[in-house]
Specification:
44% helix; Rossmann fold; 15% strand; 11 helices; alpha/beta; binds D-malate; globular
């Protein structure tokens, strides 16, 4: 693990292999991709990192935009001298990935979108974000997490594999509230990347948990159909947090995609 420019960056595998950069969702940290990183590290150079303001990356003044988060990703790619990495983002990490490839898709070898969407926040979502910030200020981050995180899991995960939720929750409540609010503002003010979907030329895989309530399979399928030559998989027994709820299925889907579409020889 390295701390560079105040960002936690975790690399594993051989630098000579094709690179994949994992970007976590909100309000999580790089560890949500731990399973995929460990599974893929023998054949791919895997990098995950804590987004500005979350996990152990620093928050600064907490005034974030999606553009700043994208610039952080481009800086990471430059500093690590990555050549056309595959980018794999979940939810907020997916918003960031979509905006990054909209800016310069030729920097990337492929795209994996997990439980995410291209649409920006509508007014109802903006009011919800504003209430979230108010709740963090008045009642604290723990209550905010308790109100929002359960909805991101499938009922079966909450009932039968509660430890998965507990681990995520334990880390989420330790985030810096300033960084969490900064990320809320960045998401609230993000732009619409939908018009760009039909211009995507790089190999793309779209992954969605079958019980995802926030970005359900029907919505993600609609998005995937706009991306030429892209592929779609539905993850059984999983909600919005598919890589942690059903890691084996996600690992194999990602591996299969990478071997067929990225490491072709
Ligand atoms: C996430 O998992 O990153 C969040 O659900 C994204 C959001 O709040 O829009």
């Amino acid at each position: 693990m390295k701390l560079k420019n105040n960002f936690i960056i975790v690399e594993s595998g051989n630098k000579k292999n094709s690179a994949i950069v994992f970007i976590h969702g909100f309000p999580y940290d790089y560890l949500m991709w731990n399973n995929q990183q460990n599974y893929l590290k023998n054949e791919f150079f895997c990098i995950s990192y804590d987004i500005r303001g979350l996990g152990k990356s620093t928050s600064g003044d907490g005034q974030f935009t999606m553009e700043m988060l994208v610039d952080d990703l481009f800086t990471l790619i430059k500093d690590k001298e990555l050549i056309k990495p595959v980018i794999c983002g979940l939810s907020m990490g997916g918003y960031l990935s979509l905006r990054a490839i909209e800016k310069d898709q030729h920097k990337f070898g492929g795209l994996i979108l997990c439980d995410t969407k291209s649409f920006p926040d509508d007014d109802a979502a903006k009011f919800k974000r504003a209430n979230g910030i108010k709740q963090i200020n008045e009642e604290g981050l723990t209550l905010f997490c308790e109100n929002t995180i359960p909805n991101t899991f499938a009922e079966s995960t909450l009932k039968e594999r509660r430890w998965i939720y507990d681990q995520i929750m334990e880390r989420a409540v330790k985030n810096d509230p300033v960084g969490v609010k900064g990320c809320i503002i960045a998401m609230l003010s993000r732009t619409d990347t939908t018009p760009f979907l039909e211009k995507i030329e790089i190999p793309t895989l779209v992954i969605c948990g079958e019980h995802d309530k926030l970005t359900p399979p029907s919505l993600m399928k609609e998005m995937q159909e706009k991306i030429k030559g892209s592929e779609f998989v539905v993850v059984p027994n999983a909600g919005h947090m598919s890589p942690v709820e059903n890691p084996d299925f996600v690992n194999k889907s990602v591996e299969d995609f990478l071997k067929r579409r990225i490491n072709k020889s």
